[in-house]
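Sat 14:20. Reprocessing the chain from the morning session after the first attempt stalled halfway. Input below, unchanged.
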Amino acid sequence: MKKPPATSPSAPRGIARFKGEKASELVPQARLSGPMPWVIAIMIALTVIAAAGGLALSNLAGAARAELAGGATVQIMEADPQERSRQAAAAVDVLVDIDGVASVRLVPEEELNALLEPWLGVGAENEAVPVPALIDIRMSGPITDDRLNRLKAALASPVPAARIDAQASWLGPVFKAIASLQWLAIGLVVLLALTSAAAVWLAARSALGSNSETIEIVHLLGGTDSQIARIFQRSIAVDAAVGGAVGLVLGLVAIVVIGNRFAALGSGMVAGGGLGVIDWALIISIPLVGVLLAMLTARMTVLAALRRML
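Finished this time. Tokens:
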């Protein structure tokens, strides 16, 4: 009579692993249950809007700095129209001969009157409200203090009523305000990410509490913590993916609507705040990052809770 073949030492482990995987399937996988997907959708939508705002502000500031880096404005502060015109012509003659000056443009009086028309009214007389002559200068490089001092020294004698300022200095407070708004957008993105992680943590803890008896049975049948955590991780990943997709759509709709409103302003500075290809790629990747964050948070939460249950 033949003896049955001896069982290898690895067989019990294989059987236990098989039973554990089957046992872990007893844990219910409730998808789209409760407010979890919708909370994630709201968080993703707000994150998309905040990120788009921060990227647009960054592009706007960069475009404005690039445009104004080599710009300067000369004002001829003279009340007498004839003397003002003479000094303006003299300033143009001096500026075109200075090294590093790429272009010099005397702003026409008609253009100045059009700019002042909303405040002074149609047909306002320059004699009643003296308007300085303006000369726009473009340098071949950025305006430095040394270059600005050389321009002032060159105009001091022939154009005594001249006042020269770097255009970038006018928008210094604006750039500081934009930088503050950028940091605010970054802070909002981080805060929303933490809030989303907290929502996933609460959902995972609630699911564990409602299925604690089933989890104990799964443990007795050979299910491991990793197998159980994988079940919760998969379920929350589906919820996060659905919520992320909905939130992305809502956020993109909001971005398009707000972008059209700003585009209607017709301002050149606002036009520099458009989003590029890389910006759109970063925005579209936000739901993917949200799903990964939700999966990682769920796994860590479940594993930590299961260790305390044993």
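Strands lie at 71-76, 101-106, 133-139, 162-166.
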